[in-house]
Design goal:
By secondary structure, the chain is of the alpha+beta class. The protein has one domain. Helix content is 13%, strand content 29%. The strands form four sheets. The chain has a 15-stranded mixed sheet that branches. It has a three-stranded antiparallel sheet with strand order 10-18-17. The chain has a two-stranded antiparallel sheet with strand order 1-2. Strand 15 (293-294) and strand 16 form a beta hairpin. The radius of gyration is 21 Å and the shape is globular. The model is unreliable at 1-32 (pLDDT under 50).
């Protein structure tokens, strides 16, 4: 369990969270926290990577003080608010929901950002994958009603608490080609289901993504690392074609800014060395109005929705919606894509739980997998990650333990937040 220097809870829990925390500790399996790691004095590659930009007022030292010790004993960055409460300074980016509001925070602790990336360096030095700091986003769901057979059947079966961290950068060209992204997935349920797992998930094929508007596969180029394995699911990202078809419209029409939506759809499992599936999940992470879209006409292949607000293509332009709100219907000129005044920050998000399957009825509860969630073993090996999986088979003859959408397009942005975010 992580040890944070600044994110220790300093305010009382709400009554609802306190009640669900008591439930999590008393119902079903006794989900006890694991032993706190012993700090080695080493720092991870992910630590101290962020530096303030021209719109940011916090120092790097204040930012780096939001840290936690990972299970390997190294120091990692962790969640922090967009504004430091002690000084009032701003970081310019956000990491989603406050994990301290999760009903299972006391069991999970602070989430180390970049643990799987770090372990990948050890497991396979020829496959380095280090992601930026700002893309780490935390999502929580307390007392989520789950059912078997999917939403259509709606047979209530259990309540679960979820605390999930996904690296989902929506400001750069990275995800156009790179499909390897870190996920930390923690869940505790009334039927005894539960996991605490961290790994690199391969979302769709490396080197390509799916166009939001057409559903076509867009082949972009070589991923980094170039030996990234293809995976299940897909990364759905808007393109310049979406912009021209849905945003730049004729006089009298209104732009459809819903076209600027990303959905990263995971289909992933933790597997043993003999390829037995221990846990399988397929959550969808959805983002409205990110600060980028794919534009092959640009030198860095990144288009900026904020720039589109000022664009005129013949008589077609962005009309209504976010562009008019931000620019005062065109009266405010020159807002850059990374200005805090922009309306395109990638901060409006939700996620779909979808299926959550465990097939570990014979145990053990502690497994060690490689950083890609494969080669699960009962003993540690170089680069392995400790995964906790409840001793249960919750598939009920193959049916899904299935969950709803969480967050309902919650806006995580403070006024000071801006791309890159």
């Amino acid at each position: 369990m992580g040890i944070s220097r600044r994110t220790t809870r300093t305010t009382p829990l709400t009554a609802a969270v306190a009640a669900t925390l008591a439930w999590a500790c008393t119902e079903g399996t006794p989900f006890a926290p694991i032993d706190a790691p012993v700090a080695t004095g080493e720092v991870s590659v992910a630590y101290a990577r962020w530096t303030p930009g021209p719109f940011d007022t916090c120092s790097q030292a204040i930012h780096d003080s939001y840290s936690t010790v990972g299970p390997d004993g190294k120091l990692y960055p962790t969640w922090h608010p967009a504004t430091d409460p002690a000084t009032g300074c701003s970081f310019g980016h956000e990491h989603g929901s406050d994990p301290r509001e999760s009903a299972i925070y006391d069991q999970v602790g602070d989430i180390p950002f970049g643990l799987a990336n770090e372990r990948l360096d050890i497991f396979n030095p020829n496959m380095p994958r280090h992601e930026d700091h700002v893309g780490h986003k935390v999502e929580i769901g307390n007392s989520v009603r789950m059912n078997f057979g999917g939403p259509a059947d709606a047979v209530f079966e259990a309540e679960c608490h979820f605390l999930i961290k996904m690296h989902q950068g929506t400001h750069s060209k990275d995800a156009f080609t790179n499909n390897m992204h870190e996920i930390a997935y923690h869940a505790r349920c009334t039927d005894g289901s539960g996991v605490s797992m961290t790994f690199m998930t391969n979302i769709g094929d490396a080197g390509s993504f799916t166009d939001t508007c057409t559903g076509n596969t867009i082949n972009v180029g070589t991923a980094s690392p170039p030996n990234s394995p293809d995976g299940g699911g897909r990364r759905i990202i808007p393109t310049r074609e979406c912009v021209e078809d849905r945003i730049l419209v004729s006089p009298g029409d209104r732009s459809n800014f819903g076209a600027l939506r990303e959905s990263w759809q995971i289909s992933e499992s933790l597997r043993t060395v003999d390829n037995h599936s221990l846990v399988s999940i397929n959550p969808y992470f959805n983002v409205r109005e990110p600060s980028r879209f794919f534009d092959p006409t640009q030198p860095d292949i990144v288009g900026r929705p904020m720039d589109v607000c000022y664009e005129l293509m013949g008589n077609q332009a962005a009309r209504g919606g976010t562009c008019d709100e931000v620019t005062g219907e065109g009266t405010i000129q020159g807002i850059a894509y990374d200005d805090p005044r922009t309306g395109f920050k990638g901060a409006v998000r939700d996620f779909d739980i979808n299926s959550f399957r465990i097939r570990n009825e014979e145990g053990p509860e502690i497994w060690y997998t490689d950083p890609l969630g494969l080669n699960g073993s009962t003993t540690e090996f170089p680069g392995s990650i400790r995964q906790w999986i409840a001793r249960i088979d919750n598939t009920r003859g193959g049916a899904d333990l299935h969950g709803p959408r969480i967050g309902k397009e919650k806006n995580h942005a403070a006024a000071s937040v801006h791309p890159p975010n």
